[in-house]
Amino acid sequence: MKKDIKSIIESILLVAEKPVSVKELSTICSSMVSDVQKSLSELIKEYQDRGIKIIKKGNFYSLVTDPKNSDAIAKFLNEELRHDLSVAALETLSIITYKQPVTRMDIEDVRGVSSDHLIRNLMIRGLIQEVGRKEAPGRPILYGTTMEFLQYFGLSSEKEIPDFKLPENTLMEIKDSDNNNDENQ
Amino acid sequence: MLKVTVEKFEGPLDLLLELIEKEKLDITEISLSKVTNQYLKKISNLDQETYDVAEFMVIAGRLIYLKSKALLPTLETEEEEQEIEDLKAKLEIYKKYKEAAQEFSNILQKNQRSFPAKKPQLILSKFTPPKGVELSDMWKVFQNLLTDMPEELKREEVELPSEKITVEEKLVHLEGAFKKKKTHKFSHLIKGSASKLDAIITFLAVLEMIKCKRLKVKQSNNFSDIELVSI
Questions:
Q1: Is A61 helix (H, G, I), strand (E, B) or coil?
Q2: Residue B77: helix, strand or coil by DSSP?
Q3: For residue A122, which of A78, A128, B47, B59 is within the disulfide window of CB 3.0 to 4.6 Å?
Q4: Which residue ranges form the domains of chain A, and what is each CATH number?
């Protein structure tokens, strides 16, 4: 008899301390990645009208509360909902969101000012994380957003992040300045 | 001390964008040149503790170039033209991200956040020593550990000799030397030093004299001795 991997996945997501990857789930369930993905999509659909949601970032999944209920949850957890990210922090976060993976230099290139403390601050809040190193001189750290970032904004996947497109006439310039950065580092 | 800043901007690009948008202009060369005076005025009394002035100066330089180009059209150089193009592109890009940040802020205003499940603390972490290990064994291991602990290294205290000579004094000394003899080898000047610090001060004094155009420097080959000639 085929075991019910959907049920297993659901249970794992409940006790998981961190976002769980599809690969991890398929290993534990000894099932094909495609089966796991199918079960996950079904679960996401089933949770549509429930107080619990499964959110997705890349290949990672997490069980969270419905953002609609955040007021009640905040009250229950005694937490403050009002966000206190500065304009500068939001700017930095938007650059990381749409340009990730990015180096500190990339961010500072866009903002025109040093952004070290802002990056550190966003890291401490768990909204961004180190996602690797750039294969360039100095092997600078690359930053990207986290699952907590999606939770913080009440989004269920990266698809819900507002669209973003740079004006056409600036695309060439970005590339150029990126190359310059590499040489200067 | 409480500090109140009436105007708040994030950096040179932010300031420039703000000035352009206040005039309801698009990002073009003409609008950049229009806000140049305002920009220069703003940065002339910039709060140096809050802002890195150098970052503002780079942009100021480009704006001044635009201004001067209007007066002297022949001034145009490829490098500067590229810099202006870069600046325009950078402003466009920065503006986009700023708008995105505003959108982020709007989302956050809704106060709709999702929370992860609180993990149940069912499994108590407890100490499980291997079978046959008694309290006395643990005590022995602990004592061994204490005795084996390396002692804290005591660093020898070294008193740094305080050098009396300053670059200014060295300058006077060198001036004298060059008055006596027009040409000196750099290696000779350094060889006469009493200490490493003295050598460094001699080097600094030589640099200073070169900067003031009192010395000429000659070197016939790579790594060959440097000759200093007074002018």
A1: strand
A2: coil
A3: A128
A4: 5-70 (1.10.10.10), 87-166 (1.10.10.10)
Check B100 against A98: CB less than 8 A apart.
yes
Cα dihedral angle (A28, A31, A37, A40), rounded to 10 degrees?
-60
How many CB pairs below 8 A link A and B?
138
Residues in B touching A158 (Cβ below 8 Å) = none
CA–CA gap between residue A148 and residue A38 (Å, rounded):
24
Q: Which residues of chain A have pLDDT under 50?
A: 1, 173-185
- Does the beta-carbon distance from A81 to B113 stay under 8 Å? yes
Residue B26 contacts A, CB cutoff 8 Å = no
User: Taking the complete model, does pTM exceed 0.90, yes or no?
Assistant: no
Gyration radius of chain B over CA positions: 33
**What token pair was written down for A185?**
């580092």
Q: Does B117 touch chain A (CB under 8 A)?
A: yes
Beta carbons of B93 and A174 less than 8 Å apart: yes
pLDDT in tens, A74-93: 888 888 887 889 999 999 99
Indicate where chain B has its CATH 1.10.10.580 domain(s).
167-230
Domain covering B167-230, topology: Arc Repressor Mutant, subunit A (1.10.10)
Answer yes or no: do B117 and A73 touch at CB < 8 A. no
CB–CB contact B111 A81 (8 Å): yes
Give pLDDT tens digits along chain B (231 positions).
455 444 577 888 888 888 888 888 888 888 888 888 888 888 887 777 777 788 888 888 888 888 888 777 777 778 888 888 888 888 999 999 999 999 999 999 988 899 887 765 555 566 777 888 888 888 999 999 998 888 777 777 887 766 677 888 888 888 888 888 888 888 888 887 878 888 888 899 999 888 888 888 888 888 888 889 988
Q: Which two tokens stand for residue A106?
A: 């990339």
Rg (CA), chain A: 19
- In three-state secondary structure terms, B33 is helix
CA dist B94 and B22 (Å) reads: 16
The DSSP annotation for A82-125 comes to S----HHHHHHHHHHHHH-SB-HHHHHHHHSS--HHHHHHHHHT
